[in-house]
Amino acid sequence: xxxxxPVLAALLLLPxxxxxxxxxxxxxxxxxxGIGNGASLNQAGDRVQNLLSQFQPRRGGVIAxxxxxxxxxxxxNSLQVSQGQTISGGAATxxxxxxxxxxxxxxxxxxxxxxxxxxxxxxxPRFLFTSSxxxxxxxxxxxxxxxxxxxxxxxxxxxxxxxxIFNVAGGGAASDASLFGRFIEYKTDLTADALTKRQVLxxxxxxxxxxxYYDKRPTRDIDLEVRYTQLWLxxxxxxxxxxxxxxxxxxxxxxARYRWPMGVESFGRPMRWVVDSNMTAYVGDQAKALxxxxxxxxxxxxxxxxxxxxxxxxxxxxxxIRLIGRYMIGDNxxxxxxxxxxxxx
Length: 345
Known about the structure:
The chain is an alpha+beta fold. The chain is built from eight helices and 16 strands.
């Protein structure tokens, strides 16, 4: 088993070791390769040359995608992006993008604002590093990113708030092979450096500026936020050379929510209808990796007021729980839907 590890590593990492060539020369007449002579040899050479030409590295692809994972979004989301086809002719899902998190102001008398978001992505690395239109790669890469923010609410009027936020972010990307290598090292005394060294580490800082409008009344609630976020990210540590670099993701988003009573009660409090929507423009480097420049979501659902039970921990009490379904669209024929839970503190 120990002797097999280097061979296994070479097979798993084969797509990463190829370099584009300007010519292809096969020794002899090709009969030893089982491809025949003359036209067959030329056809085989053309096919291999075409394959090699597809593996032109796109530097910055992983860190640009990390910028999407690290940029806070006003609503939890999950998205699958498909491009090209599998060898069998079916659609190839190349990226799964998810993010969840929350932010809140501690108290109007002490308007400290804090937020935290976790982003995740799973994708075929050739979607970022090559121009190949056809995919049949069972191995994937995985991004995990965390973004924290602290800010302060400046009340311009009774309902309008200006909120500057300072953000810090960090995360990493690792292939399935790398995670498998770490599992081997954890379970045994073996080392699998050929697998575990294939990773990308990213950190950075940045900031956001939010202009918000909050109008709370017994008959309805209106929430509106316009947010601009910019981060400065760079790779560090033993990041693979092809992915090293820096990125500046910029995001401009508008988010709105409207709530009104249903006329029935649950948990001793009125239930509410909820409608929300948001639109986000990706105006920074992350658009290069995503393949689309904007997205929009609209959704609706119901909300329960559970504040009377004072459920929570660490000084935070859940006041409302929402069940919401959303439909998403974007340029380049991006579309999808999601169902999720939301919480207010």
